[in-house]
Amino acid sequence: MLLPNDEMTIFETILARRSVRRYKSRKVDRSMISTLLDAAVRAPTAIHQEPWAFVIIQDTQLLQSLSNQAKPLFVAETQKLALEHTNHSFDIFTQSDFNIFYNAKTLILICGETAAPFYAADCWLASENLMLAACGMGLGTCVIGSALPFLNMPEAKARLNIPEKFSVVAPIIVGYPDDEITAKLRKKPVILANIETHRS
Ligand SMILES: Cc1cc2nc3c(=O)[nH]c(=O)nc-3n(C[C@H](O)[C@H](O)[C@H](O)COP(=O)(O)O)c2cc1C
What we know:
Structural class: alpha+beta
Largest sheet: 4 strands, antiparallel
Distance between the termini: 55 Å
CATH architecture: 3-Layer(aba) Sandwich
Number of strands: 4
Bound molecules: flavin mononucleotide
CATH superfamily: NADH Oxidase
Order of helices and strands: HHEHEHEHHE
CATH class: Alpha Beta
Shape: globular
């Protein structure tokens, strides 16, 4: 197994992770992907179900075709959910040259067996493990939730060999960052209560 470099502590890696949307053309090799999946499956999992399964796509033409099909569906979804009223603009999704996967060469789909009661939580925890491991290995990642409406259509699942009993939970692009990754500020943790044992 290829181990992530040990120069960063886990906390430094957590602070360093950012969503990456510009990638170098170099493809991530299979041994690195195998390490990422090893990290993913170490995530906590409710009642030991380990309901995850993975699809790895490194076919540029297929990625382009999935992007083309996913965009109009996502635009329709934003209207249904009234997301167009948020501050976020989704205009880019109507541009023909916009690739929903930011031209990344690798897309990993984390799929969950829907019979498991906490499959979505399990898959999201696996996703964060994968993204942190990637960051520790010098790779960039980004969740592409906008591809989900299309990826969960029966025709897309059939094309990607995803059995009916699975749902795609987290599409994650992976690649070598071609960006200066700048620190993003986060809101301070909101503490609703600070409850300690009273000593009399
Ligand atoms: C459930 C989920 C769906 C997301 N979908 C998209 C997406 O479709 N496209 C995209 O560019 N980023 C997507 N993101 C990434 C977020 O935009 C990003 O995490 C957020 O802006 C915070 O930035 P950071 O990850 O760099 O800290 C998604 C993130 C999550 C958690």
